[in-house]
Specification:
Strand content: 15-25%
Shape: elongated
Distance between the termini: 45 Å
Order of helices and strands: EHHEEH
Number of domains: 1
Pfam families: Phage_AlpA (PF05930)
Protein name: AlpA family phage regulatory protein
Radius of gyration: 14 Å
Strand order of the largest sheet: 1-3-2
InterPro entries: AlpA
Largest sheet: 3 strands, antiparallel
Number of helices: 3
Organism: Gymnodinialimonas ceratoperidinii
């Protein structure tokens, strides 16, 4: 299992740390794991699953426009 740091997460999902925290609190984003007193991480597979769900629900553009 691989853990993502805050920096890696921000590069992957392009959200600010504040927005990620709001999504976590609302139950709309994978929860962070407390790794130490001053270190958190996110389970890489959970974050990729979250991203895949967003990709799966994208609308297909109308090609007849």
């Amino acid at each position: 299992m691989r853990m993502l740091s805050k920096r890696q997460l921000k590069e992957l999902v392009l959200y600010s740390p504040q927005h990620i925290a709001r999504l976590e609190k609302a139950g709309l984003f994978p929860l962070r794991v407390q790794l130490g007193p001053n270190r958190v991480g996110w389970v890489e597979e959970e974050v990729y699953d979250w991203l895949q769900k967003r990709l799966d629900c994208r609308e297909v553009p109308n090609r007849h426009s």
